[in-house]
Amino acid sequence: MTAQDEELIAVSGLSSGYGAVPVIHSVDFTVRTGEIFAVVGGNGAGKTTLLSTVSGLLRPTSGSVRLAGTDITGWSPERIVAHGLVHIPEGRRLFTGLTVAEHLRLGLWNAPNRRRVERERTERVVDLFPVLGERMDAYAEVLSGGEQQMLAIGQALMREPRVLLLDEPSIGLAPVVIQRVFAVVDRLRTHGLTVILVEQRVGQALALADRGLVLRHGRVEAAGSAAELAKDPALRVAYLGAAAAGDQRIKE
Ligand SMILES: Nc1ncnc2c1ncn2[C@@H]1O[C@H](COP(=O)(O)OP(=O)(O)OP(=O)(O)O)[C@@H](O)[C@H]1O
To answer: Which residue intervals define the domain ABC transporter in the entry (predicted)?
Structure first.
């Protein structure tokens, strides 16, 4: 394995925001091949903004993003997808009136080799998510929340990405379905995928992840192994605020 493989993603001094409003400030982190990397923090901490800046949806005001050794800073989202990084936004963004099969096909919409690879990739996605195979002709809107999340992930996998950015996959799902979606994310790792996971379900995200960071007011408050982060006081501060986290009366 080369040094570049080890650091599949390298984010350095990354800042961005909306118009003149800065949101994330000089964020640094690296993600190694095959890792699940959790980005956690309270509401409005800048997690989605960070993912959007890495995937090219937002232009950074400073800093850089490297993917497998290539500087992709300022590239268009389409070019970044073609280079192997796919972002699944919060809320799944599926289309009413399109079937499961059509969504999977859409995952390849501008891939140069789409006709040649469509059948084989669809088979691979169905192997991973048999429920999608059973519901190929169903419209996305009649799927359950968990099935919709699997379709969103399946659609992204049609590109055979190296890196998946996954924003709050558990949102709006029942606890038992969340377990299933987390199990799917865990399985992606065994398929060689690298995942950056944003989650409000902090305990479950850190139990799944290898490493991660805690974001607070757009800055990295703590970073390290997921097990260390789960015990880091910065985590409580990020969710409860400094005063509340110091209050012994707050129950674990
Ligand atoms: N399109 C936008 N235009 C202007 N400001 C925005 C926009 N999207 C987000 N923000 C602001 O940027 C800050 C960070 O938001 P972001 O969605 O990145 O946080 P988050 O950590 O993902 O939060 P949540 O967990 O609530 O989704 C917030 O103050 C938010 O109001």
So the answer is: 3-242
